[in-house]
Amino acid sequence: LAWFKSSYSGTEGGDCVEVAAGTTAVHIRDSKAITGPRLTVSRKTWAGFVGLASSET
Predict the structure, then answer these.
(1) Residues contacting residue 33 through CB under 8 Å, at least 6 positions apart
(2) Secondary element (H or E) of residue 45
(3) Per-domain residue ranges for the chain?
(4) Vertex 49, ends 51 and 36: CA angle to 5°?
């Protein structure tokens, strides 16, 4: 999987999450604990989350 984190997270480490989009699911992990647990959700669920998180209502 190719993992990505927000460009807003900076380069100093900090508290960040990384996201990797697979063909059927999206995987989320803590950038400081890359071998730790992952959260896996469907692509549809992820799209809904991003839509709600980015809405201005």
Answers:
(1) none
(2) helix 43-54
(3) 7-54
(4) 140
What are the pLDDT digits (tens) for 1-57?
A: 999 988 777 666 667 889 999 999 999 999 888 899 999 999 999 999 999 988 876
Write the CA distances from 43 to 12, 18, 34, 36, integer angstroms. 30, 15, 21, 21
Burial of 13-31, coded b for 16+ CB within 10 Å and e otherwise, reads eeeeebbeeeeeebbbbee
State both tokens at 7.
């460009």
Residue 40 token pair: 């896996």
Task: Give the pTM.
Answer: 0.80
Q: CA 3, CA 37: separation in Å to the nearest integer?
A: 14
Q: Exposed, middle or buried by CB within 10 Å (0-12, 13-18, 19+), for 9?
A: middle
